[in-house]
Amino acid sequence: MYASKSSSERANKSDFKGDTQMNKWKASLALSAVSILAAGMVGCGSKNTSDASGNASASASGSNKFKLTVTSSMTDESRVEIMNETIKLFNQTHPNVTIEYNPSPWSEYAQNLKLAFTSGAGQDIVYVDDTMQQMLQKNNYLLDITDEVNSRGWADKQVPGAIEFQNARTPGKDYSVPFMTAPVVVYYNKDIFNKLNLTPPKTMDELNSIMAKVKEAGYVPMENGGMSNTPKMWSVFNMIYNQTSKDDVQQFYFQKGITPAFEKAIVSALTQVNDWQNSGYFRKEDASIDGNAVPTYYAKGQSAMVLGGNWDIPTYEGTKVPTGAFAFPAADASSQSHAIVNATDGGWALNADLSDEKKQAALDFIDTFMNPEIVKLWYEGGSTPTVKADMSGANASDLKKEVDQSIQSTEMGFFLDNAVPGLADIINKQLQMMSFHKTTPEQAWEEIKKEYNKLVLVAQGQ
Amino acid sequence: MKQEAIPYLKRIIKRRSPEKTNPLAYLFLLPAFAMVIWFMVWPAMQTFYISMTNWDGISPKRFVGMQNYIHLFTDEPMFAKAIKNTLLWVLGGATVPVWLGLVFANLLVRGKVKFTKWYQLGFFFPQIISSVIAAVIWKWIYDPTFGPLSAILDKLGIARPVAGWLGNPDLVMIALFVIFVWGSFGYTTMIFTAALQGVDSQLYDAANIDGCGAWGQFRHVSIPGLRQTITTVVILMTIGSFSVFDIVMATTKGGPGYSSYVISYYVYTQGFIVNRLGFAAAASILLTVFILIVSRSIILIREKD
């Protein structure tokens, strides 16, 4: 009993001591956990500017060798190859500069740029379209290169208006320099056209007549890809250019509002596309066809026409269907101007945090794209350069020559879905609903307008 | 005696749970605890904060309070459509794969089927494939011109929708749901197979003696015996159905129109396409709340039973 009493007393005392020790352990463990977390958060939260462009390491080491990081959305094999050749030529005059080129797919490109720049790891040279440029520039991530554009004579080396077009959202200030445009043309099946004695149309009436004849002959007048509706969307934009003035378009594109003339034009364009749908000018299974599968359907040889960009030239050449190209027709024969969907593809912009040494090298890198040898390389690869150069000796395919020939007398026009981020998805959804008669062109426009106004407020930070 | 008993009881209780008094146990738990805080709790707190801003992912954040939550319910018809589609998906996702799993598990364990291991492997095979790859494969299967489904139906002389399955607003949800069930019923089958093997076989013998047929044994022995497992699986499938995204992203992107818009895809569109990260964060917080309410309700209903 004594033993148990003393052991219970000892147990009580030791329990008390144990409790105190236990509490101290818990407190110290909790404190360790919090300290580790806090250290981690502080470490990860700080902007690591020295890694962004290697400024610190370059200047600290005093070495002339340094690296420039470059990114774009040109991930297709042919353009990656041309890019590598461009880098090789740059390195002939700049052997001390290593270009680290890492493109990422278009679908992730904007997000990757945002992540890179907000985390302090923004690339030194980035290829941006005008909305991405606006996104980075308004947050002071891009360098104003207006003076350099002037001092290096780049405006004179380019076709008139190209640099202004690329920098249209910041009039008077240049943040990027383009080197190619992205025209959208109509590719057509020459066999079907020859069989039906058709010639490329110059007016909308001629286009409608061709589609009716092709339909009657049992072919598919126009490929589309209803899951993304890109050709339909481009058709709508082209028809808007035919029916309204440049000012009305610019008001819409630069988020300044929607004019009545623009509204009338877009409703008319949507109505025309709806008529095409109801007339059976697209495949009956079009709604279930993905945009990426369109060339496969075209390759069956049963489709007369399809809208595509100049970046699709290798794809349609690969279908082995004899293919030609023409510009989307004007409204009528008396049309004074003929604008088509054909914007600068993008432009090279510089990170605002570049050191002087890196800035000069980066500007020299952009200058490489004005080199006639490089312009010829890109031209032969299917691109339409904005840089003035003699391409008569270039080794271009027949289709490439036809594409360039077809757009010669046309004016540049925006990809209107780029007016605000997210607009492409909304237009696509409304086109899909129209194809199932779940909405009319007027109702579709009302929905697009409502969302456009909302997205403008978002884009302007309100 | 009574006073001695209390400290004695305390010691007993403490001795019965030594891990609660052993600081070494906490030390071993620390890394997991830190990871949960760093990868789950902290991001959740950040998401909640972002949901109260109008952040676009790159500009400075501006605090807007509950504005995003209010707009979600007053100014976003697409969100309402996404909720409707998601609830339909949850209703189907919490029942069809569960029932299929129960039936197939019962057949494999209780039915006189040979090569049951091979069947289990076959049923589980879709789980090995990434859901995105599975969705891409099914997109090809559903292709109205090149897909094998159209070819088989044409060969059998069975009518099929002219516009295809994924492009038809009336059929798209069913078509996508088939992909979901195909990918998940193997998982539920496997769980129920394992659980069924824990049900006392004497109960089946007793039921057999009482004249219970196969259906009666399934209804009165298997299902009651698997009650807890069924609840768990239903909750897991509910959560999985609420967060379905990859199938929609890889196939229809919410289309045609908004017929297959689900909440997760809405969050993705608002956050990464439209650059309304604050708004998307609010939608994702609401999604989390829906999931918590539904799962908790399922548990409460089962506990009441």
Structure description:
The complex is a heterodimer of chains A (462) and B (305). With 462 residues, chain A is an alpha/beta fold. Chain A has two domains: 164 residues, 3-Layer(aba) Sandwich (D-Maltodextrin-Binding Protein, domain 2); 222 residues, Periplasmic binding protein-like II (D-Maltodextrin-Binding Protein, domain 2, 3-Layer(aba) Sandwich). In chain A, the strands form two sheets. In chain A, strands 5, 6, 7, 8, 9 and 11 form a six-stranded mixed β-sheet that branches. Chain A has a five-stranded mixed β-sheet with strand order 2-1-3-10-4. In chain A, helix 14 crosses helix 21. Chain A is globular and about 85 Å long. The termini of chain A are far apart. Chain B has 305 residues and is an all-alpha fold. Chain B has one domain: MetI-like fold. In chain B, 74% of the residues lie in helices and 0% in strands. Chain B has 16 helices and no strands. In chain B, helix 6 runs parallel beside helix 10. The longest helix of chain B has 28 residues. The radius of gyration of chain B is 25 Å and the shape is globular. Chain B starts with a helix and ends with a helix. Chains A and B meet through helix 1, helix 5, helix 20 and helix 21 of A and helix 1, helix 3 and helix 15 of B. Chain A: This is Carbohydrate ABC transporter substrate-binding protein. Chain A: Pfam families: SBP_bac_1.
Comma- or semicolon-separated keywords:
A: alpha/beta; D-Maltodextrin-Binding Protein, domain 2; 2 domains; 21 helices; 11 strands; globular; disordered N terminus; B: 305 residues; mainly alpha; MetI-like fold; transmembrane helix (chain B); transport (chain B); MetI-like (chain B); transmembrane (chain B); Sugar ABC transporter permease (chain B)
